[in-house]
């Protein structure tokens, strides 16, 4: 049998390379899909551990401070827990009643807000500002519906579809929140958050000192590389979560103050939700902006108050970008904003919603460490 010609050899190698690339892509897709399923399945266990780890990251510098004052670490941890508990009780006593009242009011007024929003949108479309008609003439052009003879416009059709689906969207959201809140496993796990955080803080020194010995790898160059990569990933995790929580709290306070000054209803509720939503960069800000602008449009029915709300959102984002994030986060995550946006979108799509979005940035930063170490060859 004659050996393959040079052209045939190139075709064979090209085919084998294509198969290898397809196999690698399939393996990556299967791994991501499996990780998403695991995250979804273990979310009642992972959420409390993640919250406890974030709390431990936030409280660890305070514990270290007391330990440097010659206070034994167990006593320092207990003292920090007492201070943190007193702070939480004080904050909860001051704002939690208002949040509960606003939540109950909003839940009871969802149908009324939906109908009022639809009326506002229809009135806006029927009598749009002249400036908008000049800028977007196609959006306000009316055509006659041959079925019933009514006049419709592209903007009216879109607005009717969106406002008509608001009750279903609200019911779906309330159902989801109810399922999350009623999950026995998640509630039991949340009760254990202080226990997890206490042990994380108490055993910090031992974990930092002995975790390398737990790795099931014998002492070798491979183990040294693995320790380096895991150390770098751990640094990114601590830096991101500690910084992002502080940034989210600062943003939430600024949002609340700004919305109160504008006169927006449910300002405390939006600010409280922003603490958790802003943990996910970009997407959290988009959700807060959409909720605030919608509520202001329904509440006031003019364009001045939504413009003021938009001004508050813009000012907070500018302050975050120029002052808050650089002071708190610095460049410790080391990712470009576009890379962060892509990571968040990918994580929320592939890795199980909010939890995946939160984990996406540290995972992307870990990938950056690996690429810098083994591909880009940076120090």
Model description:
The structure is a single chain. With 379 residues, this protein is mainly α. It is built from 14 helices and 2 strands, in the order αααββααααααααααα. The chain has a domain at 215-379. α2 crosses α4 (154-164), α9 (221-262) packs antiparallel against α10 and α10 runs antiparallel to α11. It has helices spanning 6-68, 73-126, 130-135, 154-164, 166-181, 184-191, 193-202, 204-214, 221-262, 267-277, 283-300, 304-328, 337-350, 353-374; strands spanning 143-144, 151-152. β1 (143-144) and β2 (151-152) form a beta hairpin. It has a two-stranded antiparallel ribbon with strand order 1-2.
Distance between the termini: 52 Å
Looking at the structure, what is the overall shape?
Answer: flat
Lateral arrangement of strands in the main beta sheet: 1-2
Strand residue percentage: under 5%
- Largest β-sheet summary: 2 strands, antiparallel
Number of separate strands: 2
Order of helices and strands: HHHEEHHHHHHHHHHH
User: Helicity level, as a percent range?
Assistant: over 70%
* Total of DSSP H or I helical runs spanning 4+ residues: 14
**Nearest-integer average pLDDT:** 76
Rg over alpha carbons: 27 Å
* Low-pLDDT residue intervals, each spanning 5 or more residues: 176-184
Look at the helices and sheets and give the structural class: mainly alpha
């Amino acid at each position: 049998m004659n050996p393959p010609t040079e052209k045939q050899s190139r075709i064979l190698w090209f085919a084998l390379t294509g198969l290898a690339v397809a196999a690698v892509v399939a393996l990556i897709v299967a791994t991501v899909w499996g990780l998403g399923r695991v995250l979804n399945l273990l979310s009642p266990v992972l959420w409390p551990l993640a919250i406890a780890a974030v709390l431990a990251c936030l409280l660890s510098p305070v514990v270290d401070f007391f330990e440097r004052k010659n206070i034994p670490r167990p006593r320092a941890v207990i003292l920090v827990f007492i201070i943190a508990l007193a702070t939480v009780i004080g904050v909860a006593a001051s704002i939690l009643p208002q949040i509960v009242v606003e939540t109950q009011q909003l839940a009871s007024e969802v149908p009324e807000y939906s109908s009022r929003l639809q009326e506002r949108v229809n009135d806006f479309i029927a009598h749009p500002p002249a400036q908008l008609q000049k800028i977007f003439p196609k959006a306000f052009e009316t055509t006659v519906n041959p079925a019933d003879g009514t006049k419709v416009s592209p903007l009216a059709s879109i607005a009717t579809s969106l406002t008509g689906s608001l009750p279903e969207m609200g019911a779906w959201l309330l159902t989801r929140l109810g399922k999350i809140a009623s999950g026995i496993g998640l509630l039991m796990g949340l009760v254990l958050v202080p226990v997890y955080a206490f042990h994380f803080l108490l055993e910090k020194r031992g974990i930092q000192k002995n975790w390398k010995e737990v790795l099931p790898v014998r002492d070798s160059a491979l183990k040294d590389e693995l320790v380096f990569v895991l150390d770098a990933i751990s640094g990114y995790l601590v830096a991101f979560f500690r910084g992002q929580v502080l940034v989210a709290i600062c943003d939430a306070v600024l949002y609340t103050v700004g919305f109160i000054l504008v006169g927006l209803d449910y300002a405390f509720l939006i600010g409280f939700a922003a603490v958790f939503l802003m943990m996910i960069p970009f997407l959290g800000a988009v959700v807060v902006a959409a909720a605030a602008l919608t509520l202001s449009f329904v509440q006031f029915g003019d364009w001045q108050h939504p413009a003021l709300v938009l001004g508050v959102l813009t000012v907070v984002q500018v302050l975050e970008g120029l002052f808050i994030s650089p002071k708190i986060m610095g460049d410790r995550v080391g990712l470009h904003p576009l890379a962060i946006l892509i990571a968040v979108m990918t994580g929320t799509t592939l890795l199980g919603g909010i939890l995946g979005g939160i984990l996406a940035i540290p995972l992307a930063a870990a990938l950056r460490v690996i690429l810098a170490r083994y591909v880009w060859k940076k120090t």
